[in-house]
Amino acid sequence: MAIHIGTALRIFSGILALLLCLPAFGQGAEAIISRDTPPDPAAIQLRAVATGFHRPIYATHAGDGSGRFFVLEQSGKIWILEDGARTTVPFLDVSALISPSALSQRYSEQGLLGLAFHPEYASNGTFFIYYTDHGGGTVVARYQVMPQQPYLADPGSGQILFSLNQPYANHNGGHIDFGPDGYLYIALGDGGSANDPLGAGQNRGMLLGTLLRLDVDSAFPYAIPADNPFVDDAAARDEIWAYGLRNVWRFSFDRATGDIYLADVGQNQWEEVNFQPAESRGGENYGWNVYEANTIFAGGSAPNHVAPFFAYRHALGCSVTGGYVYRGSAIPELQAAYLFGDYCTGRIWAAWRDSSLTWQTVELMKTNMAISSFGEDETGEVYVIDYVGAVYRFEPPA
C-alpha cells in the first residue's frame, strides 16, 4: 500500500519526537524536550492573582506539598500566597539587615534578592535567602521555620553561610536555587560599575562573575562538592561551577530534565540567555567580558567559550529577566517552552528546541509590566512578577 509523502513525513516527525523524549529528572514520566511549532499567543493570557506588593522581586514554592507560594519584596519581606490570598503578616522580615538603598524610593539593585527552600524542607524546615547587607556585601544565610508554625519563619535562626564584599552597588546577581543534585547554586555578578573593571568575568581566581555550586549539608558553613570542575586547579576557586557571567538575573532548572537556563544582563548592546545541559560536568565559560553575547566586547581570550542560544539588541529591551521551562498542565500550548522577558519593555519570549534540537525563539506577548522576575509553583505553573506590585499567572483564555 502506498503512503502519501506528507503522511510519511508526519509519521517520521512523530517517531523522532518520541525518540527525543528523556526520562523526567526524578520522575517516572517522560519529558518532552522538543517541539516543532511556536506557542500560539491566542491560547495564553496573563491573569493577576495578587496585587499590592512593594517592589516584588521573586516568587517560588517550598516543595512541601502545601501549594503555598512565597513572594519576595526587595525591601526585605517574604509573603505567603495561599488560595489567592496573602497572609496578614510576612513569613519573614529581614528589612533591618539589608542595604538601606533597598528601603528608599530610588532605583537600587540591592536588598533581598533570592530565596531557596531546602529539598527536604517538608521535614527539616530549612530555607536560604540571598541579600545585600548594610555595607553592600553579598550574604547567603540559612533560616528555619518556626516549630509548629508553618506560616512564620524564626527571625533569630539566621546563620550566615556565605558572604562576599561587593566593590560597587550594582551587579549583585542574587539568585539561589537547589539543583536536582541537591547542591545550592548561587549567581554572583561581576562586581558592578561598567565594563567589568576588575576583570572578574575571566578570572577564575575570583568568585565574582560566576555561578557557584555548594554542598550546604555536609559541613558548616558549606563543603565543596568533589566533582566541582576546578577543585584540582590551584588558580581557580573551588566553589565555581561556571564563569564568564556579567550579572545573571535569574537562572532556573528545567524540572523535567535538569538543564540550566541562565539569563545574563548585558552591557551596551546585547542581552543574552545561556544554556547548560543536565549532563554537563560544569566549567563552562560564558564569555564576559571578552564577549557581550556573540559579539567581541573587550577582546582577548575566552577559553572554552559557550555562546548564548539567544541574544537580543537593546532596541528590544535593556535588561533580560530569566524564567522557566513550562512543565505545568493548565496550558499544553506552552509545554517545553522556556519563558523569559525584559524588565524595560515588558516583552515576553518563548524559546524551544525543534526536532533537530535547533533553538527557536518567538516573541510571545508585549506587556506593560516591569518584569522583575518569573516564578514557578509546585505544580509547574509559571508566573510573572511585575515590579510595580503584582503577580500574574499564565493561564488559558477565559
Furnish the topology, listing elements before pairings.
Elements: H1 5-19, E1 22-23, E2 30-31, E3 45-50, E4 56-61, E5 69-73, E6 77-82, E7 85-86, E8 92-93, E9 112-117, H2 121-124, E10 126-132, E11 138-146, E12 149-164, E13 176-178, E14 184-187, E15 210-214, E16 240-243, E17 248-253, E18 260-264, E19 270-276, E20 291-292, E21 295-296, E22 310-313, E23 320-325, E24 338-342, E25 347-353, E26 359-366, E27 371-376, E28 382-386, E29 390-395
Antiparallel strand pairs: 1-2, 3-29, 4-5, 5-6, 6-7, 6-8, 9-10, 10-11, 11-12, 13-14, 14-15, 15-16, 17-18, 18-19, 19-22, 20-21, 23-24, 24-25, 25-26, 27-28, 28-29
Explain this structure to me?
This protein starts with a helix and ends with a strand. The longest helix has 15 residues, at 5-19. Strands 4, 5, 6, 7 and 8 form a 5-stranded antiparallel beta sheet that branches. A 4-stranded antiparallel beta sheet has the order 3-29-28-27, with no helix packed on it. Strands 9-10-11-12 form a 4-stranded antiparallel beta sheet, with no helix packed on it. A hairpin with a 2-residue loop joins β11 and β12. The chain is mainly β. 5% of the residues lie in helices and 39% in strands. The radius of gyration is 21 Å and the shape is globular.
